[in-house]
Amino acid sequence: MKAPLSLAAGAASETGSASLAAADLALVDAARRIIALRRRPEWHSVGCALRTRSGRVFTSVHVGAYVGRIDVCAEAIAIGMGAAEGDTDIETIVAVNKDGHVVAPCGMCRELIADYGPGANVIVPGPQGDHPVPIASLLPNKYTRHDDR
Ligand SMILES: [Zn+2]
Q1: 43 alpha carbon to ligand 1 midpoint, in Å?
Q2: How far apart are CA 66 and CA 77, in angstroms?
Q3: Ligand 1 centroid from CA 59, angstroms
Q4: Which of 21, 40, 50, 141 has the smallest set of CB atoms within 10 Å of its CB?
Q5: Does residue 111 carry a catalytic annotation?
Q6: Centre of ligand 1 from the C-alpha of residue 57, in Å
């Protein structure tokens, strides 16, 4: 299945993004475009798009490896791209699978997103369609170092 390459602002996607604002639809579209462009079975199967509060958008793909447990998620790569540019104030982040469907972040990425963007929103799938939720709602009782309190 080919991932949709563009969506009109405000239009519902085939995966049910009717509740997303235009900027968030554009973010989902950016994630779909990067995985459609860079998909490589076993090596790059998830795409991510991250928008910072400055308005910059970083897109990435997950980095697979022969030893599966050392794969690096697309969200971590996008956060690293922002860090390299000195821009990690995450406003919204989304990941999509190889078919362009929005996927929820794994537990490790929830930690990373919360560390770098405690006020970030994450676009996740749901029965009513894709929608943004605060990262704090995806990671209740987050780990903190004792001296961070
Ligand atoms: Zn992850």
Answers
A1: 15
A2: 18
A3: 15
A4: 141
A5: no
A6: 19
Ion ligand 1 residues within 5 Å by Cβ: 73, 106, 109
Structural domains of the chain ordered from first start: 22-139 (3.40.140.10)
As a whole number of angstroms, the distance between CA 13 and CA 105 comes to: 20
Task: Tell me how far the alpha carbon of residue 52 lies from the centroid of ligand 1, in angstroms.
Answer: 19
90, 60 Cβ separation under 8 angstroms: no
* Beta strands at 90-96 and 121-124: parallel, antiparallel or unpaired: parallel
Q: Which neighbouring-strand residues pair with 58?
A: 50
Which position among 75, 85, 91, 111 bears the catalytic label? 75
Mean confidence (pLDDT) of the chain? 89
Report the separation in Å between the CA atom of 45 and the middle of ligand 1, taken as the mean of its atom positions.
12
Mean pLDDT of 36-62: 97
Euclidean distance between CA atoms 71 and 5, whole angstroms: 26
- Return the beta strands (E) in 47-113 as ranges: 47-52, 57-61, 90-96, 102-103
Mean pLDDT of 111-120: 96
Tokens of 36: 């459609």
Q: Which amino acid is at 9?
A: A
